[in-house]
Design goal:
- The chain is of the alpha/beta class.
- It has 11 helices and 9 strands.
- The strands form 2 sheets. It has a 7-stranded mixed sheet. It has a two-stranded antiparallel ribbon with strand order 6-7.
- The mean pLDDT is about 95.
Length: about 290
């Protein structure tokens, strides 16, 4: 039965990858109805997160954002199933790359990079980053509990030459490439809620006291990496622009937590501008400062 389910998933992924856009996103509309109206997938979490993040918005405004979010969530759900078996050519039709010379300059200056991002837009499309970044691209990820799905998403993320690396293997990977004098781009999704037992930095984010993962700053300061914020701006269904902003070229003069505050505020402004593209179903605010001290 388990094997039948895995084969069925691969067939669906292959089928989705071949469907014309209007059919694929027609399926997304059906998924939206199921998630929002029938299943009510994490609706309480979504509404709670939005209400606390935007205390000045009315109930109707919060509901409007929530519905737009669930439409977006349904779209990236079908997109990511399709991308697993989608051709490189069609994946590249989904993304554009903002023109800038950030990465070329950093390569010329022999600078390694910490690439900070978040669960905004469709973050899985960062698999295309090797198309614009001349460094060796690593994407730090948390392995899935299901070995089959973990393998499928690993293969998907490696399609364009990026190297997925687990959080536990991050440090030894950095050391290995440092010894070989290879320049790297280390991609980190930095908006997860840190575990209570982990080191964390507390800040105000979206009007809430928020525990922040300090890893990007620690790596950047210890190794003198440049810091770039990379994100996807959604143009319309199935169309994104990958954008990058250089936050720090030289981190040696940065004050403590300046890097963390800077990338956090950068993300906050993205969310305020277009809140529907953030992952509101994620339990970002699991605990407060007092609870984390126990």
């Amino acid at each position: 039965m388990k094997k039948t389910g895995t084969y069925l998933f691969l067939i669906i992924s292959w089928l989705f990858s071949k469907l014309p856009e209007f059919v694929l996103y027609g399926i997304a509309d059906i998924v939206y109805i199921f998630l929002y109206y029938l299943l009510g997938y994490r609706k309480k979490t979504v509404f709670n997160n939005l209400t606390k993040s935007f205390p000045d918005k009315s109930g109707d405004e919060i509901k409007h954002i929530a519905k737009k979010f669930f439409h977006h969530l349904s779209e990236i759900f079908v997109e990511n199933i399709a991308i697993i078996k989608m051709s490189k050519k069609r994946i590249l039709q989904m993304v554009e790359f903002e023109e800038n010379d950030i990465y070329k300059k950093l390569l010329t200056n022999k600078k390694n990079i910490v690439g900070v991002t978040a669960h905004y837009g469709n973050w899985e499309l960062f698999l295309t980053l090797p198309k614009i970044i001349p460094h060796i691209v690593f994407g730090v990820y948390k392995p899935l509990n299901n070995a089959f799905f973990d393998k499928q998403f690993y293969k998907m993320r490696a399609k364009f030459g990026a190297i997925p690396v687990t959080m536990n293997d991050t440090y030894k990977t950095i050391v290995k490439y440092k010894k070989e004098n290879e320049l790297i781009f280390l991609g980190l999704i930095a908006d997860q809620s840190p575990l209570k037992i982990h080191n964390k930095y507390w800040s105000t984010f979206l009007n809430q006291e928020t525990a922040v993962f300090p890893g990007p700053e620690k790596i950047a300061k210890k190794l003198n990496y440049a810091v770039v914020f990379t994100y996807l701006e959604k143009i319309k269904r199935g169309k994104y622009i990958i954008k990058s902003s250089l936050l720090f070229d030289d981190v040696s003069q940065c004050k403590k937590f300046e890097i963390t505050e800077t990338h956090l505020k950068f993300l906050e402004q993205l969310i305020i501008k277009k809140p529907e593209y953030y992952l509101w179903s994620h339990k970002r605010w699991k605990y407060n400062r007092e609870e984390s001290s126990f």
